[in-house]
Amino acid sequence: MKTIIDCDPGHDDAIAILYAAQHLDIVGITTIFGNQTVEKTTLNALKVLTLAGLDYPVAKGCDRPLIGSAPLATDVHGASGLDGVDLPEPSMQALDQHAVSFLIEQASRHRGELAVAITGAHTNVAMALRLEPRLKEWISRISIMGGTTGIGNLKPQACVNILSDPEAAHIVFSSGIPIHWIGYETTRTVLMELGHITRLRDSGKRVARAVGDIAFYYRERQLYVNGLNGAPMHDSCAIVPLIRNDLIRYQPVHLDVALEQGIARGMTVVDRRPLQPQAVLSSVSARRPDNVLMASELDRQAIIETIITAVLNYP
Ligand code: BDR
Ligand code: CA
Protein backbone atom coordinates (compact mmCIF):
# COMPACT_ATOMS: atom_id res chain seq x y z
CA MET A 1 0.00 0.00 0.00
CA LYS A 2 1.32 3.46 -0.89
CA THR A 3 1.93 5.26 2.38
CA ILE A 4 3.25 8.51 3.81
CA ILE A 5 4.39 8.40 7.43
CA ASP A 6 3.83 11.76 9.12
CA CYS A 7 5.98 11.53 12.23
CA ASP A 8 8.27 13.07 14.87
CA PRO A 9 11.17 10.59 15.33
CA GLY A 10 11.44 9.90 18.22
CA HIS A 11 12.32 6.38 19.34
CA ASP A 12 9.03 4.66 18.56
CA ASP A 13 8.57 6.64 15.35
CA ALA A 14 12.00 5.44 14.19
CA ILE A 15 11.03 1.81 14.79
CA ALA A 16 7.68 2.38 13.05
CA ILE A 17 9.47 3.66 9.94
CA LEU A 18 11.74 0.60 9.84
CA TYR A 19 8.80 -1.75 10.42
CA ALA A 20 6.66 -0.08 7.75
CA ALA A 21 9.48 -0.06 5.20
CA GLN A 22 9.59 -3.86 5.19
CA HIS A 23 5.93 -4.12 4.15
CA LEU A 24 4.62 -0.93 2.56
CA ASP A 25 5.31 1.13 -0.52
CA ILE A 26 6.52 4.25 1.30
CA VAL A 27 6.21 7.32 -0.93
CA GLY A 28 7.74 9.62 1.66
CA ILE A 29 8.26 10.66 5.24
CA THR A 30 6.91 13.98 6.47
CA THR A 31 8.14 15.37 9.76
CA ILE A 32 6.67 17.47 12.53
CA PHE A 33 7.65 19.01 15.87
CA GLY A 34 6.83 16.94 18.96
CA ASN A 35 9.41 14.60 20.40
CA GLN A 36 11.90 17.33 19.49
CA THR A 37 12.04 20.38 17.23
CA VAL A 38 11.15 19.69 13.62
CA GLU A 39 14.80 20.30 12.65
CA LYS A 40 15.86 17.47 14.95
CA THR A 41 13.02 15.08 14.05
CA THR A 42 13.86 15.64 10.36
CA LEU A 43 17.55 14.94 10.97
CA ASN A 44 16.57 11.80 12.89
CA ALA A 45 14.36 10.59 10.04
CA LEU A 46 17.26 11.04 7.61
CA LYS A 47 19.64 9.19 9.95
CA VAL A 48 17.25 6.26 10.40
CA LEU A 49 16.80 5.93 6.63
CA THR A 50 20.56 6.11 6.12
CA LEU A 51 21.09 3.39 8.74
CA ALA A 52 18.74 1.07 6.87
CA GLY A 53 19.88 2.02 3.35
CA LEU A 54 16.46 3.46 2.48
CA ASP A 55 16.22 6.55 0.30
CA TYR A 56 12.64 7.77 0.70
CA PRO A 57 11.97 11.47 0.23
CA VAL A 58 11.83 13.32 3.56
CA ALA A 59 9.88 16.59 3.74
CA LYS A 60 10.22 18.82 6.76
CA GLY A 61 6.90 20.04 8.14
CA CYS A 62 5.44 22.45 10.68
CA ASP A 63 7.49 23.66 13.60
CA ARG A 64 4.57 24.57 15.86
CA PRO A 65 0.85 23.97 16.32
CA LEU A 66 -1.83 26.04 14.55
CA ILE A 67 -2.38 28.02 17.75
CA GLY A 68 0.09 28.79 20.52
CA SER A 69 3.00 26.51 21.33
CA ALA A 70 3.53 22.94 22.50
CA PRO A 71 6.11 21.37 24.84
CA LEU A 72 8.71 19.00 23.39
CA ALA A 73 8.94 15.43 24.79
CA THR A 74 12.62 15.76 25.77
CA ASP A 75 12.17 13.93 29.08
CA VAL A 76 11.40 10.74 27.18
CA HIS A 77 13.29 11.19 23.90
CA GLY A 78 16.29 13.24 25.05
CA ALA A 79 18.13 16.27 23.70
CA SER A 80 18.46 14.87 20.18
CA GLY A 81 14.95 13.39 20.11
CA LEU A 82 16.62 10.01 19.53
CA ASP A 83 19.13 9.67 22.37
CA GLY A 84 20.82 6.38 23.28
CA VAL A 85 21.89 5.19 19.82
CA ASP A 86 24.77 5.96 17.47
CA LEU A 87 23.35 6.58 14.03
CA PRO A 88 25.27 7.39 10.85
CA GLU A 89 25.27 10.94 9.53
CA PRO A 90 22.63 11.22 6.80
CA SER A 91 23.69 10.33 3.29
CA MET A 92 20.91 12.51 1.86
CA GLN A 93 19.09 15.75 2.54
CA ALA A 94 15.50 16.66 3.17
CA LEU A 95 13.52 17.86 0.14
CA ASP A 96 13.40 21.53 -0.66
CA GLN A 97 9.62 21.26 -0.36
CA HIS A 98 7.42 21.71 2.70
CA ALA A 99 5.69 18.60 4.09
CA VAL A 100 2.27 20.17 3.56
CA SER A 101 2.89 20.71 -0.13
CA PHE A 102 4.49 17.25 -0.43
CA LEU A 103 1.40 15.64 1.13
CA ILE A 104 -0.89 17.42 -1.33
CA GLU A 105 1.32 16.60 -4.33
CA GLN A 106 1.57 12.90 -3.46
CA ALA A 107 -2.14 12.60 -2.62
CA SER A 108 -2.94 14.11 -6.01
CA ARG A 109 -0.49 11.80 -7.78
CA HIS A 110 -1.79 8.67 -6.04
CA ARG A 111 -5.49 9.57 -5.88
CA GLY A 112 -7.56 6.98 -4.06
CA GLU A 113 -4.61 4.78 -3.20
CA LEU A 114 -2.58 6.70 -0.63
CA ALA A 115 -2.68 5.97 3.09
CA VAL A 116 -1.23 8.37 5.67
CA ALA A 117 -0.02 7.16 9.06
CA ILE A 118 0.09 10.00 11.61
CA THR A 119 2.33 9.33 14.60
CA GLY A 120 2.88 12.88 15.82
CA ALA A 121 0.89 16.12 16.02
CA HIS A 122 -1.67 16.58 13.25
CA THR A 123 -0.60 20.03 12.05
CA ASN A 124 0.83 18.99 8.65
CA VAL A 125 -2.22 16.98 7.62
CA ALA A 126 -4.65 19.62 8.94
CA MET A 127 -2.86 22.36 6.98
CA ALA A 128 -2.92 20.19 3.86
CA LEU A 129 -6.66 19.56 4.29
CA ARG A 130 -7.35 23.27 4.58
CA LEU A 131 -5.18 24.14 1.56
CA GLU A 132 -6.54 21.37 -0.66
CA PRO A 133 -10.02 20.17 0.37
CA ARG A 134 -9.96 17.50 -2.37
CA LEU A 135 -7.52 15.62 -0.13
CA LYS A 136 -10.69 14.16 1.41
CA GLU A 137 -11.30 12.26 -1.80
CA TRP A 138 -7.67 11.63 -2.62
CA ILE A 139 -6.42 10.06 0.63
CA SER A 140 -7.88 6.59 0.97
CA ARG A 141 -7.19 6.09 4.66
CA ILE A 142 -5.53 7.66 7.69
CA SER A 143 -4.15 5.59 10.54
CA ILE A 144 -3.57 7.50 13.76
CA MET A 145 -1.71 6.85 17.01
CA GLY A 146 -2.64 9.49 19.57
CA GLY A 147 -5.33 10.46 22.03
CA THR A 148 -6.73 8.16 24.70
CA THR A 149 -9.99 6.95 26.17
CA GLY A 150 -8.30 6.34 29.52
CA ILE A 151 -4.95 7.20 31.01
CA GLY A 152 -2.92 9.95 29.35
CA ASN A 153 0.72 11.05 29.38
CA LEU A 154 1.08 14.82 29.06
CA LYS A 155 -2.13 15.29 31.08
CA PRO A 156 -4.20 12.84 33.17
CA GLN A 157 -6.43 11.90 30.25
CA ALA A 158 -4.78 13.43 27.19
CA CYS A 159 -1.99 12.15 24.96
CA VAL A 160 0.73 14.36 23.57
CA ASN A 161 0.06 13.75 19.85
CA ILE A 162 -3.40 15.30 20.15
CA LEU A 163 -2.72 17.74 22.98
CA SER A 164 0.19 19.24 21.00
CA ASP A 165 -2.30 20.59 18.46
CA PRO A 166 -5.94 19.89 19.34
CA GLU A 167 -7.32 22.15 16.61
CA ALA A 168 -5.34 20.31 13.95
CA ALA A 169 -6.50 16.95 15.34
CA HIS A 170 -10.09 18.20 15.23
CA ILE A 171 -9.68 19.05 11.54
CA VAL A 172 -8.28 15.60 10.77
CA PHE A 173 -10.81 13.60 12.80
CA SER A 174 -13.73 15.52 11.27
CA SER A 175 -12.36 15.34 7.70
CA GLY A 176 -14.55 12.46 6.58
CA ILE A 177 -11.51 10.42 5.48
CA PRO A 178 -11.74 6.79 6.75
CA ILE A 179 -9.67 6.65 9.96
CA HIS A 180 -8.16 3.78 11.93
CA TRP A 181 -7.41 5.07 15.40
CA ILE A 182 -5.50 3.64 18.34
CA GLY A 183 -5.19 5.44 21.65
CA TYR A 184 -2.33 5.77 24.12
CA GLU A 185 -4.10 3.71 26.79
CA THR A 186 -3.85 0.76 24.38
CA THR A 187 -0.45 1.33 22.78
CA ARG A 188 1.22 1.67 26.20
CA THR A 189 0.48 -2.03 26.69
CA VAL A 190 2.32 -3.11 23.51
CA LEU A 191 5.76 -3.42 25.06
CA MET A 192 9.11 -4.48 23.70
CA GLU A 193 10.58 -6.07 26.82
CA LEU A 194 14.16 -6.61 27.89
CA GLY A 195 14.23 -10.12 26.40
CA HIS A 196 13.18 -8.81 22.99
CA ILE A 197 15.72 -6.00 23.22
CA THR A 198 18.55 -8.40 24.06
CA ARG A 199 17.54 -10.56 21.09
CA LEU A 200 17.91 -7.57 18.77
CA ARG A 201 21.18 -6.38 20.31
CA ASP A 202 22.71 -9.86 20.12
CA SER A 203 21.59 -10.51 16.56
CA GLY A 204 24.86 -9.32 15.03
CA LYS A 205 22.85 -7.28 12.52
CA ARG A 206 23.49 -3.57 12.19
CA VAL A 207 19.91 -2.31 12.01
CA ALA A 208 18.61 -4.72 14.65
CA ARG A 209 21.43 -3.72 17.00
CA ALA A 210 20.57 -0.05 16.58
CA VAL A 211 16.87 -0.76 17.16
CA GLY A 212 17.87 -2.69 20.29
CA ASP A 213 19.74 0.41 21.51
CA ILE A 214 16.79 2.65 20.64
CA ALA A 215 14.37 0.37 22.52
CA PHE A 216 16.75 0.01 25.49
CA TYR A 217 17.00 3.77 26.00
CA TYR A 218 13.26 4.23 25.42
CA ARG A 219 12.43 1.52 27.96
CA GLU A 220 14.64 3.16 30.60
CA ARG A 221 13.01 6.55 30.11
CA GLN A 222 9.51 5.05 30.04
CA LEU A 223 10.21 3.21 33.28
CA TYR A 224 11.34 6.45 34.89
CA VAL A 225 8.71 8.79 33.45
CA ASN A 226 5.63 6.60 32.93
CA GLY A 227 6.31 3.50 35.02
CA LEU A 228 6.27 1.17 32.01
CA ASN A 229 8.42 -1.95 32.14
CA GLY A 230 9.21 -2.01 28.43
CA ALA A 231 9.56 0.14 25.33
CA PRO A 232 6.02 0.91 24.14
CA MET A 233 5.57 0.45 20.40
CA HIS A 234 3.03 3.29 20.21
CA ASP A 235 3.71 4.36 16.66
CA SER A 236 4.11 0.91 15.10
CA CYS A 237 0.51 0.30 16.17
CA ALA A 238 -0.55 2.89 13.57
CA ILE A 239 1.33 0.91 10.91
CA VAL A 240 -0.23 -2.46 11.77
CA PRO A 241 -3.66 -1.93 10.11
CA LEU A 242 -1.97 -0.90 6.86
CA ILE A 243 -0.18 -4.26 6.77
CA ARG A 244 -2.47 -6.82 8.44
CA ASN A 245 -6.08 -6.89 9.51
CA ASP A 246 -5.85 -9.80 11.94
CA LEU A 247 -3.78 -8.23 14.74
CA ILE A 248 -6.03 -5.37 15.86
CA ARG A 249 -9.83 -5.43 16.01
CA TYR A 250 -11.63 -2.12 15.52
CA GLN A 251 -15.10 -0.83 16.37
CA PRO A 252 -16.84 2.17 14.80
CA VAL A 253 -17.32 5.13 17.18
CA HIS A 254 -17.77 8.88 17.11
CA LEU A 255 -14.69 10.78 18.32
CA ASP A 256 -14.44 14.48 19.17
CA VAL A 257 -11.43 16.48 20.35
CA ALA A 258 -12.03 18.81 23.30
CA LEU A 259 -10.83 22.30 22.29
CA GLU A 260 -11.78 24.30 25.37
CA GLN A 261 -9.01 25.73 27.51
CA GLY A 262 -8.62 23.90 30.84
CA ILE A 263 -8.23 20.38 32.15
CA ALA A 264 -10.13 18.74 29.28
CA ARG A 265 -8.26 20.44 26.40
CA GLY A 266 -6.85 17.87 24.00
CA MET A 267 -8.95 14.99 25.30
CA THR A 268 -10.37 12.58 22.74
CA VAL A 269 -14.01 12.09 23.70
CA VAL A 270 -15.36 8.83 22.34
CA ASP A 271 -19.05 8.06 22.05
CA ARG A 272 -19.61 4.33 22.41
CA ARG A 273 -23.21 4.55 23.55
CA PRO A 274 -25.67 2.33 21.76
CA LEU A 275 -27.72 4.16 19.15
CA GLN A 276 -30.76 5.40 21.06
CA PRO A 277 -34.29 4.85 19.77
CA GLN A 278 -35.97 8.04 18.47
CA ALA A 279 -38.29 8.13 21.51
CA VAL A 280 -35.54 8.90 24.05
CA LEU A 281 -33.69 11.46 21.96
CA SER A 282 -35.54 14.41 23.48
CA SER A 283 -33.84 13.76 26.82
CA VAL A 284 -30.51 12.29 25.60
CA SER A 285 -28.08 13.90 23.19
CA ALA A 286 -27.90 11.78 20.07
CA ARG A 287 -24.77 9.89 19.17
CA ARG A 288 -23.34 11.54 16.10
CA PRO A 289 -22.27 9.52 13.06
CA ASP A 290 -19.21 7.32 13.49
CA ASN A 291 -16.04 8.97 12.18
CA VAL A 292 -13.32 6.53 13.27
CA LEU A 293 -12.62 2.86 13.63
CA MET A 294 -11.26 2.59 17.17
CA ALA A 295 -8.84 -0.19 18.15
CA SER A 296 -10.62 -2.27 20.77
CA GLU A 297 -8.75 -5.60 20.96
CA LEU A 298 -5.27 -6.59 19.92
CA ASP A 299 -2.77 -9.42 19.90
CA ARG A 300 0.13 -7.74 21.70
CA GLN A 301 2.65 -10.55 21.40
CA ALA A 302 1.98 -11.02 17.70
CA ILE A 303 2.43 -7.29 17.07
CA ILE A 304 5.78 -7.26 18.87
CA GLU A 305 6.88 -10.35 16.93
CA THR A 306 6.01 -8.82 13.55
CA ILE A 307 8.01 -5.70 14.43
CA ILE A 308 11.00 -7.77 15.53
CA THR A 309 10.80 -9.99 12.44
CA ALA A 310 10.75 -6.90 10.21
CA VAL A 311 13.73 -5.37 11.98
CA LEU A 312 15.74 -8.61 11.81
CA ASN A 313 15.13 -8.68 8.09
CA TYR A 314 17.56 -5.82 7.53
CA PRO A 315 21.22 -6.75 6.96
C1 BDR B 1 3.25 9.30 21.37
O1 BDR B 1 3.98 10.42 21.85
C2 BDR B 1 5.26 10.47 21.29
O2 BDR B 1 6.19 10.90 22.22
C3 BDR B 1 5.54 9.08 20.79
O3 BDR B 1 6.42 9.10 19.70
C4 BDR B 1 4.16 8.61 20.39
O4 BDR B 1 3.85 9.02 19.08
C5 BDR B 1 2.84 8.45 22.55
O5 BDR B 1 2.02 9.16 23.39
CA1 CA C 1 5.53 9.86 17.61
- Assembly type of the chains comes to single chain
Overall tally of structural domains: 1
According to CATH, the homologous superfamily is: Ribonucleoside hydrolase-like
By CATH, the architecture is named Alpha-Beta Complex
Q: What number is the mean pLDDT?
A: 96
- Radius of gyration from the CA trace? 19 Å
Give a quick account of the main beta sheet: strands, pairing sense, barrel closure.
9 strands, mixed
How is this structure best described in words?
The chain is α/β, with parallel strands linked by helices. It has a single domain (2-312), classed as Inosine-uridine Nucleoside N-ribohydrolase, Chain A (Alpha-Beta Complex), CATH 3.90.245.10. The protein has 13 helices and 11 strands. Strand 2 (25-31), helix 2 and strand 3 form a beta-alpha-beta unit. Helix 5 packs across helix 8 (166-173). The two termini are 23 Å apart. The model has no long low-confidence stretch (mean pLDDT 96). Residues 7-8, 10, 12-13, 35, 119-120, 235 line the site of calcium ion. Calcium ion (CA) binds next to helix 1.
